[in-house]
């Protein structure tokens, strides 16, 4: 019998509450704990996927500035999830597209507060990508979300 090489995988439940997602955080042993996101998530249930969501209101008026657009985008995601009976704690993945990485990094503290206010202390797997521009020229951020509602 051989001993496996490389890091061992730890699967940590995110919450014992029966109403919450049965998602498990995937954290290889020996890896540093990520701050504000998970390396991976495993979940079983009904999948809910959003398109690219931007920071505009119901009348398609974009919020003014990057931070305000993030706030509106996250709020829009909550509204879309609610249509399927999902909540922020069911999120398993977020992909952020920003037009200026420096703008994102310069606002991390405020973005963290906004994130926790809207989504709580639930951190799914996330990716952050800088893009040349978004379809809506004035948009500064676009986020795709995937949630899994437990069975």
Describe this structure in words.
The chain is of the alpha+beta class and 151 residues long. It is 24% helix and 28% strand. It is built from 3 helices and 8 strands. It has helices at residues 66-83, 101-106, 108-119, and strands at 9-13, 24-28, 41-42, 45-49, 53-54, 91-98, 125-130, 141-150. Strands 4, 5, 6, 7 and 8 form a 5-stranded mixed β-sheet that branches. Strands 1-2-3 form a 3-stranded antiparallel β-sheet, with no helix packed on it. Helix 1 (66-83) packs parallel to helix 3 (108-119). The protein is globular, with a radius of gyration of 17 Å. The termini are far apart. 26% of the residues are buried.
Which SSEs are present, and which pair or pack?
Layout: E1 9-13, E2 24-28, E3 41-42, E4 45-49, E5 53-54, H1 66-83, E6 91-98, H2 101-106, H3 108-119, E7 125-130, E8 141-150
Parallel strand pairs: 6-7
Antiparallel strand pairs: 1-2, 2-3, 4-8, 5-8, 6-8
Helix pairs in contact: 1-3
Characteristic key phrases:
28% strand, three-stranded antiparallel sheet, alpha+beta, 151 residues, 8 strands, disordered N terminus, 24% helix, five-stranded mixed sheet, 3 helices
């Amino acid at each position: 019998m051989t001993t496996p090489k490389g890091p061992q995988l730890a699967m940590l439940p995110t919450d014992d509450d029966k109403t919450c997602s049965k998602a498990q955080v995937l954290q290889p042993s020996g890896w540093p704990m990520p701050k504000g996101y998970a390396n991976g998530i495993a979940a079983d249930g009904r999948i809910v996927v959003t398109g690219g969501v931007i920071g505009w209101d119901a009348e398609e008026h974009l919020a003014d500035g990057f931070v305000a657009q993030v706030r509106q985008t996250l709020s829009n995601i909550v509204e879309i999830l609610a249509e399927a009976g999902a909540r922020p704690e069911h999120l398993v993945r977020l992909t952020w597209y920003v037009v200026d990485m420096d703008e994102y990094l310069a606002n991390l503290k405020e973005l963290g507060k906004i994130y926790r206010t809207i989504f709580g202390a639930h951190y799914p797997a996330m990716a952050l990508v800088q893009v040349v521009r978004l379809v809506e020229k004035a948009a500064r951020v676009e986020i795709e979300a995937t949630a899994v509602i437990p069975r």
